[in-house]
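Example complex used in Figure S2.
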Amino acid sequence: MSLTTLKPEYQAQEKEIQNTIYQHIDRWDDIVFSAGAGAGKTYALVESLKHIVKHHGRRLSEHNQKVICITYTNAATAEIKERLGDSQLIFVSTIHERLWELIKNHQKPLVAIHKGNLAKKIAEMEHDISTNADPKVEPKFRVYRALSQERRAEFEDIISDKLDIYYRLYDSPANKLRDGLTDVGEQFPDILKNVGNFKKIVDTILRLKKYKACIEKIDSDLDGYTEVRYESRFNRDILHRMIISHDTLLEYGQELVSQYDILKKIIIDSFPYILIDEFQDTNTAVVTIMRQLSAYSSKFGHNFLVGYFGDEMQSIYDDGIGHNLPTIHAGLVSVNKFLNRRSHQEVIDTINKIRDDNTDQKSIYSDCTGGSVEFYAYKKDGRAQIDNSEAVLNFANRYVNLWNISQENKLHCLVLTNKLVATLSKFENVHSGFTGTKYYKRFWDRTNTEVLSTDLTKLGTIPRLFFEIMNFQSKISNPRTPLESIIDRTILENASFDELSTCIKKCQELAGESIGGFVESIFNEYDGSQSSIFSQKVDHMFNGSFKSYDNFYKHVFDELFPNIDTEDESVLESVNKHVSDLLSITLEEFGRWYRFIADQQDSEIEFHTYHGVKGLEYENVIVIMENDFGRNRDKFSSFFMHVGNDTVPEEDKGRAEFMNTKNLLYVSCSRAIRNLRVLYLDDITKFDKGIKSIFHEIHCYPDC
DNA sequence: ACCTTGTGAATTTTT
DNA sequence: TTCACAAGGT
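Predicted assembly (704 residues):
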């Protein structure tokens, strides 16, 4: 056993650091607490909250004041609430929830800001149309720009007439849209030459119209236009319907705070302490709000404190404040912690080298050795026809015996993309089945949330439907599942024993190779009668929406391929093929997807993205790396060419891309408690020096 | 030879 | 949404 005995010296140091934080809190100093991976950041935050309650709680209660604790995710909110226990004095929430609570009752100024935002957007669009010379914008509006005012009005009229056709054929090939809009083509031949630009023009003038109409409605106090609403379910503003989403909420919040001193006063007086978790991920607008509150409080001698807790090296998203905290909020007192409570010495040594910023961590334990870190370069064997994902699986499997991997001691394998996670977890067809649909091609950025989220409330309509089916399938195929978790209680209560046993028998007879086959077998047993418990169960599962397999099929078809041109035989054929292919995927494969989503994976090896494991820790970690990521063809290769290379100017190492790569490497490698392996899939000979500067030795896989 | 146009492919995560 | 590239036109 290791990592069991605390070093007295470091234990004392840890206590001292905590006391330093308390002293600053007691003196109302705004602070920034920085600590690397595994240092116990959340512990420090929770203890600080407890300190405030213990030493200042009575005063807070007397003045009816509260403490605000802001987290980055709902998951973190839950975690902190759990560690903190019940406290009436502390409001733990995400920034969005808290900010909306603070500003939602000030609708008058909020609507004024909203109106200003609409006006700003209108001005931007008018600028794009008429005078923007940006080579990316100008060509799109060139044809429209050449039209006279009268012709523009005529164009607008004819488009308004044809709106239904326009939207129906929006995603059809260019010629189809042209054919549908022949009237427009005849009167304005130039404008339909480039369909991409045409759509841009039409979308812009339509939006202009809506925004202008919205301003008029606000001015005349029309019903529904006297208040702004915050919509948290999707990240998209619908400004002309008075709906804002996450980013705009922060923007409005910042404007409101900076414009209205009375709001600053209200916040400071009600919430004298604000502690922020994971400050590196916090939006600039939020830090700006904090700075303004802090400045206001010192100007008028109010007691107020902001505490930032985090680690700039773990900033892996571009919209967070990252290392710019001191620039936006100057004058913070720094408290640092260079201890590590998570990993073995070998891992700590490696992550210290990655950081390379004179903040070397030391293990808090005296028995901290016993881990291992090795870097492997993958040497492709020309004869063996295996692809990268097979190589990854083979590599991982080597360690199953070596490290005694089991259900209880899992191996966690980190890769860069969800696509690869799906392939390695062996539900590639489910993933591609969804990403290949019209809906997920059009909204490709929704795929990860709607198809792969372990937060069930975020699943898309069809993924959710398939999840319910698989949930049912998995329960009936496990003989130990209690009846009431298969059949809803309201149905059970009114059932006779005879009816129930018929239902159970029917469930047992359900079969099918594929998910489509399984649903077909469900509808073979379904008769729609109220007396059949089985049919009631089916209605309950599908919300009564489907009475036959055809209903079900049509629903899947319509949701995944909305608004397709059903008149076109070839389109119809290819869409039908795609839907049946999706429904032909085996229950086994869908089962793996289901257990991934439900967080019930039974495999000894689990796959995750680098980004997805932030904040987590695992005994055994394999990090899979390659040159490219996203649009960047040489993200990691160029990082290793820079690192440990004295001829590269320092300013190059300060560039955003370099820092982001470094942070990703840091976050992924610092998840390991004991064993860490890195497997690099591309040729590393051009940057082996950089790799050696962090990992010492380069091993080869399968061999050199 | 150069420009325009249309098509298809590409990341991660949170609220 | 943004970018790269192929196809086709001038």
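DSSP finds 33 helices and 16 strands in chain A. The longest strand of chain A covers residues 672-680.
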